[in-house]
Design brief:
Oligomer: single chain
Structural class: alpha+beta
Organism: Streptomyces siamensis
Protein name: Acyl-CoA dehydrogenase family protein
InterPro entries: ACX4-like (IPR045008), Acyl-CoA_DH_CS (IPR006089), Acyl-CoA_Oxase/DH_mid-dom (IPR006091), Acyl-CoA_Oxase/DH_mid-dom_sf (IPR046373), AcylCo_DH-like_C (IPR036250), AcylCo_DH/oxidase_C (IPR009075), AcylCoA_DH/ox_N (IPR013786), AcylCoA_DH/ox_N_sf (IPR037069)
Family: Belongs to the acyl-CoA dehydrogenase family.
Cofactor: FAD
CATH superfamily of the largest domain: Butyryl-CoA Dehydrogenase, subunit A, domain 3
Helix content: 40-55%
CATH architecture of the largest domain: Up-down Bundle
Strand content: 5-15%
Largest sheet: 8 strands, mixed
Radius of gyration: 23 Å
Distance between the termini: 67 Å
Shape: globular
Length: 418
Amino acid sequence: MTTDATRLASSDDRLTADAARLAPLDDQLAADFYLYEALLSDEERKILLKARTLMRDEIKPLVNEYWGRGEFPMELIEKFRGSGLAALAYEGYGEHQPAISHLLGGMLAMELSRVDASVATFFGVHNGLAFYSIHYGGDQEQRDRWLPAMASMDKIGAFALTEPLGGSDVSGGMRTTARREGDTWVLNGAKKWIGNATFADYVVVFARDVDDNKVKGFVVEKGTPGFTPVKIEGKVALRIVQNAEITLTDVRVSEADRLHNIKGFRDVAEVLRVTRGGVAWQALGVMIGAYELALDYAKERMAFGRPIARFQMVQDLLVKSLGNITASWGMLIQLARLQDQGIFRDEQSALAKEFVAARMRESVAWSREIFGGNGIVLDYDVARFFADSEALYSYEGTHQMQTLIVGKSITGHSAFVG
């Protein structure tokens, strides 16, 4: 009896502690209906709130002007540099494990996207794709040479995989080639849709070795002869992101600048497996940002003498959006736990990207609908989220490619063509 009473008392204490942690938090998001942020430690939440303050006070006032002009605010780099957020991916590396949990990393990606998807994409390309390619694909000397400057954002990175004639099929049809000449590699070909490439200091370029037909990775520095990035004009989404089409004409790269642990496309796929979950978190952030705008607008916008938030059909759209947000957030939290335990699989990242991006697409459309005609005007912000959601739906693997990855896993049969 005494043992049972002690056990019950201990259980009650845990429940009381959990209830306290799950109480409403300061600066809690309206979209956090199930109090997911309370799963972060106090220290982690301080970091998240630091990012929230930065995005709200320093970044948000810039985005509409630059999005409308299709330009990148270079002062944004200095603002991130001063925040120390990029360094979180580097400080504390032991066996090259991130200093922060995947849960906090995901929520930071969400927080950036909640204000602007272009800014989150810039950060994700630099801090995710480029940084992780070097951390995973480079040897210790290469990590020590490149990563500290990237962590401080004194140097900016880009990731060049997609080609003008190859997107989802680039793994088997990469046309960019690498030919070895002694201690030098000669790269020829083209890449397209490469974020940050117009101004990046280090561009991770993947090319097919003509001798063994294996994909290899190279770090090409800005200004290397034969390396020509040209900005892609006329985009209707992610307009702040400076995407480029890159032409490589006899670009000579030292063997010391070849990522020595990239030995085939399987290693490139490992980078994508890890970063794909980050894109799902970005999609969640876009969904939340649009929902928050629509919720505030519904409370303020008057029609027929009352706020439109009192109309049943408006509430229906808001509740469906909140349901999508809550379900997506729960999925991503479990994915982050699996990542932190080192047991997550490619198909789990693929399902998260497929599901959350699809929910984002429909939820952002519902949010835009609540604005009526004002929903297509940049002044109200939601039009930017609406346009940007289309890009997130497609990049880092299209919706259909994700379903094929998951479909193969659950059926045991590959439906890939070719």
